[in-house]
TrEMBL record:
It comes from Paractinoplanes deccanensis. Coiled coil: none annotated. Residues 114-139 have a biased composition (Low complexity). Pfam families: APH. InterPro entries: AGP_Transferase (IPR051678), Aminoglycoside_PTrfase (IPR002575), Kinase-like_dom_sf (IPR011009). It comes from the Bacteria. Residues 31-111, 144-288 form the Aminoglycoside phosphotransferase domain. The lineage of its organism: Bacteria, Bacillati, Actinomycetota, Actinomycetes, Micromonosporales. Signal peptide: none annotated. Residues 109-139 are annotated as: Disordered. This is Phosphotransferase.
Amino acid sequence: MPLHENELVVDEDVVRSLIAEQCPQWAGLPLTPAGAGTENTMYRLGDGLLVRLPRSVEKAAPLRTEQRWLPVLAPLLPLPIPAPVYAGRPSDAYPAPWSVLRWLDGAPPHTANGPLATSPGTAPTPPGTAGTATTPPGTVTDWRTFARDLSGFIRTLHGIDLMGATGPRWYRGGELAPCDEWARKALADCRPLVGDTIDIDLLEHLWTEALRLPRHDTREVWLHTDLKPTNLLVRDGRLAAVIDFGGLSIGYPDAEHAPVWDLPASAREAYWDAANLDDITWQRARAWAIVVGASGIPYYWHTYPDFVAECRARLSAIATGV
């Protein structure tokens, strides 16, 4: 089902035609669906490759950023990230740029009882990561260790020299105030959808309070901007890789910490300790978690129930303090 206007048709026939035309050396490899996010559709190619295709021509700019910067950043980071091996060109079959990347083994983080969010199917398991009947793939052995590893990755990313880069920039690397009107509309739109299951009044109060906070950290750094669980891969119980750098940009680091509200409370506590964040940064990060979660619920309500479940779980964790 399309998630946005002007979506391109992406199916196995389209992907095979692109590979045959531009990468004939891989034309004989097996091709299997490998999930889809809000911006891209993925196919696994053989055992070691991933084809990544933007959902629309308008969504393709981040892919060029990945192709430019991921090879530069990868050697400097403590965990594997996607490595582009081919920059695909637009064609008659598919009028947008696309990428082939190295496949990274792993599965999104799960508790021993299943996915982090409440909807079945959330955090789809990539092919080749099957677990046992009793242990879901991606099961985290120790959430505190997971959180410390994630904090270490973020700290390293934020410490990498900008190397003269001045962009790209995205709203999540900026200030909260320009998002105020949008945030309040998103929260208002959530009210009839979530009913009394989430305290929207409390979330709006927390958002309002965050707008009054000063900024302590004025550094601009490299940002992933979307470190939600489905973009983290677990292998052998540990955080093993970070994927989907479509939001790679430069800006302030507050919003980078927002996805910790997608994790269990023990992980969130360990992350706070490991990252050594001050209260103001933590509150601003929480505000970013609110606006991103609240905007996702009404926008994807009819088209992407798994993502809506992620957003609901995030807002519920903030509102209940769990």
